Amino acid sequence: MSGSLPHPYYQYCDLGPVPRRSPAPTPGALDMLHRVQAYRGHPVQQLGFITASTTFDAKENLDRLLLILTQPPMFTTLRVDLSKISAREAQHEIMISLKEQSMKTGLETFSMFWHAEFQDCLVLHNRGPNTVEKVDKEMMVDLACGMAVLRGAHVFVQGIMAAPPGKKLFIGNGVSQVSRSDVFNAYSRSVRGVGVLMTQPVFEAPCLAELSFPWLVPQNLPSIACVHALAPQPGELVLDMCAAPGGKTSHIAALMANQGKIVALEKSSERAKKLEQLGLQNVHVFAYDATKALSQDLVPQAERVFGPPFPPSSFDRILVDAPCSALGQRPCYVNRISVNQLMSFPVIQHKLLMVAAELLRPGGVLVYSTCTITLAENEEQVAKFLARRADMKLVAPSVRLGSCGLEGSQLDATQRAMVQRYDPGMLLADRDSRPSQDLHNVDTIGFFIAKFVKHKEEDT
Ligand SMILES: C[S@@+](CC[C@H](N)C(=O)[O-])C[C@H]1O[C@@H](n2cnc3c(N)ncnc32)[C@H](O)[C@@H]1O
């Protein structure tokens, strides 16, 4: 990691510094660059935003987090399905592919190493922010495309915009791969593929679209950690309650070495169909609302057609990778989530957890996760669940990365030490004392993981 990580990327670009006036957090739009001000000027607890505490420490913590969320992580993680390829062969194939990328762009190849705790996880070191002189010719891309470029993508033709937006963020220089008329001519909108090859990006990361192997899944580190916390075993019956697009389902399948059965539920039929098309072995996909996955009828197991709803105590392990406000994504510049949407997530998350508790067999394992940073969707959710389900016990996973849970919910200090809050803001808090070999465990997206075990009858 270069010493430049604390460099506020937004000073680097044309967006300008964080404004000094204090805009009200308008329902419907929480602009990431205004959030610090919104937090200072308003009772953010009303939004269930990040913490119920208004202590100086909490404000400092939030300021750091908001700053770091505007930068892409400085590491890329790749999950290798070791049931399909050996670690050695995988590393060799990836290295060849990275060298090919480097020949095309002229950028140095990326160094990589295996994660010390997760044997299926390769970590690649990204670079940046680089001081790049803008070339004269300018091309605008939409925000989604720009954020992908900051994480290593090239500019795809579909991301190029005809009209310049109000605010601009410089993401680097590149070489156009298509003619101007091809991009902007309405009749040639069918042109697909790379529009600009990024040869001087502000942030350098491997292009994941070009690392396309059937045994490789680019995944953020906390997502990989989440399934390791679940620790599915060959031969078990596992439920993935919110499964699409299937990154974690495929990881569960890999760890079970295709022995056992995985039920993948997904409410959106379109997303369920795409998940089905992945053709994962031993995975049964159902387009189904997981809040309705508990059956109350008394039909014996042998007479049931396999599928939801399921009787109580059906599963050995359950993953609730819940729908959430996704405020932990990096980089992020604008978030248009409405307050109503923000408030709706804790309700559905609690319902999913309550159904999961019923569907889990005594002695079974439940993992709850979100890719967001709010107290309401994380620590408060865990506290409410424990209060309503005396048979569920919060436990620490065998590999514990990330920070402790935030103060401000009903969780006590011991409980807060058991959950994993991935808080990249910590990078700015203790950057001088943190060992460099640990940076990839902290420089991640914002994420939260809690693991529970259901009491066996004899325990209670
Ligand atoms: C955070 S994403 C899951 C990501 C997935 N686990 C992965 O790793 O690829 C949440 C998913 O839950 C789905 N979802 C939302 N409400 C649901 C419900 N009631 N039942 C089942 N799935 C639901 C969403 O459509 C979305 O695909």
From TrEMBL:
<keyword id="KW-0949">S-adenosyl-L-methionine</keyword>
<feature type="domain" description="SAM-dependent MTase RsmB/NOP-type">
    <location>
        <begin position="141"/>
        <end position="455"/>
    </location>
</feature>
<feature type="binding site">
    <location>
        <begin position="242"/>
        <end position="248"/>
    </location>
    <ligand>
        <name>S-adenosyl-L-methionine</name>
    </ligand>
</feature>
<dbReference type="InterPro" id="IPR029063">
    <property type="entry name" value="SAM-dependent_MTases_sf"/>
</dbReference>
<dbReference type="InterPro" id="IPR018314">
    <property type="entry name" value="RsmB/NOL1/NOP2-like_CS"/>
</dbReference>
<keyword id="KW-0694">RNA-binding</keyword>
<protein>
    <submittedName>
        <fullName>Ribosomal RNA small subunit methyltransferase B</fullName>
    </submittedName>
</protein>
<dbReference type="GO" id="GO:0001510">
    <property type="term" value="P:RNA methylation"/>
</dbReference>
<keyword id="KW-0808">Transferase</keyword>
<feature type="binding site">
    <location>
        <position position="321"/>
    </location>
    <ligand>
        <name>S-adenosyl-L-methionine</name>
    </ligand>
</feature>
<dbReference type="InterPro" id="IPR049560">
    <property type="entry name" value="MeTrfase_RsmB-F_NOP2_cat"/>
</dbReference>
<dbReference type="InterPro" id="IPR001678">
    <property type="entry name" value="MeTrfase_RsmB-F_NOP2_dom"/>
</dbReference>
<dbReference type="Pfam" id="PF01189">
    <property type="entry name" value="Methyltr_RsmB-F"/>
</dbReference>
<dbReference type="InterPro" id="IPR023267">
    <property type="entry name" value="RCMT"/>
</dbReference>
<feature type="active site" description="Nucleophile">
    <location>
        <position position="371"/>
    </location>
</feature>
<feature type="binding site">
    <location>
        <position position="266"/>
    </location>
    <ligand>
        <name>S-adenosyl-L-methionine</name>
    </ligand>
</feature>
<comment type="similarity">
    <text>Belongs to the class I-like SAM-binding methyltransferase superfamily. RsmB/NOP family.</text>
</comment>
<feature type="binding site">
    <location>
        <position position="297"/>
    </location>
    <ligand>
        <name>S-adenosyl-L-methionine</name>
    </ligand>
</feature>
<dbReference type="GO" id="GO:0003723">
    <property type="term" value="F:RNA binding"/>
</dbReference>
<dbReference type="GO" id="GO:0008173">
    <property type="term" value="F:RNA methyltransferase activity"/>
</dbReference>
<keyword id="KW-0489">Methyltransferase</keyword>
